[in-house]
Amino acid sequence: MSSLDVTFVTADRTVWTGQAAQVVVPAVDGSMGILPAMVPTLAILGTGTVRIIDEDGHVDERTVSGGFVSVDADVVTIGVDDAEAVASGDARL
């Protein structure tokens, strides 16, 4: 099974790094799902939730306001100014 190599960082820390099955980001022109074997992409992020679904199905959600996402050869890099954890009661699957 293919996976994504994800690095999610803010200006001062690494938020999440590892292998994921899927990533969903709030691009400025709408929600964007990222799966393995996706064409290379660079997008600007708006305000919303970044969802990282790991290979075991665990979902990590963080609220962001702006930033970027880069996808190239199953390597996903997400860079934002700040990322706040979504409360577990607010998680959407």
TrEMBL record:
<dbReference type="Pfam" id="PF02823">
    <property type="entry name" value="ATP-synt_DE_N"/>
</dbReference>
<dbReference type="InterPro" id="IPR036771">
    <property type="entry name" value="ATPsynth_dsu/esu_N"/>
</dbReference>
<dbReference type="InterPro" id="IPR020546">
    <property type="entry name" value="ATP_synth_F1_dsu/esu_N"/>
</dbReference>
<keyword id="KW-0813">Transport</keyword>
<protein>
    <submittedName>
        <fullName>F-type H+-transporting ATPase subunit epsilon</fullName>
    </submittedName>
</protein>
<dbReference type="InterPro" id="IPR001469">
    <property type="entry name" value="ATP_synth_F1_dsu/esu"/>
</dbReference>
<comment type="similarity">
    <text>Belongs to the ATPase epsilon chain family.</text>
</comment>
<keyword id="KW-0472">Membrane</keyword>
<keyword id="KW-0406">Ion transport</keyword>
<keyword id="KW-0066">ATP synthesis</keyword>
<keyword id="KW-0139">CF(1)</keyword>
<dbReference type="GO" id="GO:0005886">
    <property type="term" value="C:plasma membrane"/>
</dbReference>
<dbReference type="GO" id="GO:0046933">
    <property type="term" value="F:proton-transporting ATP synthase activity, rotational mechanism"/>
</dbReference>
<feature type="domain" description="ATP synthase F1 complex delta/epsilon subunit N-terminal">
    <location>
        <begin position="5"/>
        <end position="83"/>
    </location>
</feature>
<dbReference type="GO" id="GO:0045259">
    <property type="term" value="C:proton-transporting ATP synthase complex"/>
</dbReference>
